[in-house]
């Protein structure tokens, strides 16, 4: 049995430089999205702000990531625009890493993270768009690898930051020493903030000093991450050079055009400019006129599924530590702090495994397996809520099951719509929205109803996601039948004279 299908391998060899570049920019995305939680206490010392103030940096990043995802499709019109945007955004991420140590006020830090979030959102949309456009019906495998690189970056940045984090209080004051926060208290807080987001009332009980001399060494971590990320914009620039998109070249046909213009775009305009755009461009009435109702329903259902599943990922990563350290589990801070790392490691491993599975099985089968697995593991966690061991097992299995949902939904929905719609922009934006909104909702429920509601919220969301997927399969069948009937009517009306 061949490990890689010959046709898939041939496609990859044809577009290897483009593909590797898009994968690398998602490494930048993962590198940027995971560093904030572990370093937030040191950044609090650097900016001499309260925890309530510093945690608004999370919101700043997430909100502008959503905005960037919505606007990212505006850069898709030509390959030059897409690659220029990717080069600029990955370079911006390195610059943000470099200037974060210079942000000595929380407002400056929030602005820097807003800029980084905007760049991340643009990267998210464009990289997905370009891979789908490049491989179309064969994009599932390559999308799995793309999202594997998010997990890889999310694993690297905490490892880089960890040696430079303060073990004790990183603000030294003249009038207090006995009341300084202990190392275990800081570890507890750092783990509480280790998810992609947090809720302000979860950390309001921990007063920390804001006046004194900052002694944090976290600046070195950011400079190292800025340096690690620099090869990514260089790789995008090299691709622009390879595609002859730089101004110093003559306006001869690009290599990609000469290879694929005749087969994919024989008329010179083709589907590339008819399809993907920003979410706002998708609402253009001129483009939507004449579309069947199922066309819109497919977009809505695909976006809703990702709203739920990415929301589950964000809320689980954000609050599993809080759940673990409260009764009935009452885990130790260090033990509970490992849960978030286990979750992200299992997501990364799951995306690696699904690279092979995605060309052996259809996206619909993989989605069925993944969503049913998510429901079953959430159900078992509810039943065995008192077991700390099973919480670790369930966290690992949940990460494995939910890891492939985003790339599978994206490939499946685009395949149904024949790569002519705005599915990618809608799906990416919906996922970013769910990741931000569900964290706030779940945090509010935990605050008002107790920690057990954390698992209950995950179970309810999982069932809703699977129900939406079954509805998506039903609408897919109706949509296919509508297209078949329309094509038959066209053939019957075009009789020869």
Provide structural commentary.
With 497 residues, this protein is mainly alpha-helical. The chain folds into two domains: 13-170 and 177-185 and 194-248, Growth Hormone, Chain: A; 277-485, MFS general substrate transporter like domains (Growth Hormone, Chain: A), CATH 1.20.1250.20. The chain is built from 22 helices and two strands. Helix 2 (16-33) runs antiparallel to helix 12 (231-242) and helix 16 (293-325) packs antiparallel against helix 20 (405-416). The N and C termini lie far apart (53 Å).
The CATH topology of the largest domain turns out to be: Growth Hormone, Chain: A
Taking pLDDT < 50 over at least 5 consecutive residues as the criterion, the unreliable ranges are 174-180, 197-207, 255-276
Shape-level CATH architecture of the largest domain: Up-down Bundle
In DSSP terms (H or I, runs of 4 or more residues), the helix count works out at 22
Helix proportion: over 70%
Oligomer: single chain
Strand ordering within the main sheet:
1-2
**Biggest sheet record:** 2 strands, antiparallel
Domains counted in the coordinates: how many? 2
State the separation between the terminal residues, measured CA to CA: 53 Å
SSE order, one letter for each helix or strand = HHHHHHHHEHHEHHHHHHHHHHHH
Notable traits:
mainly alpha, two-stranded antiparallel sheet, 2 strands, single chain, Growth Hormone, Chain: A, 497 residues, 74% helix
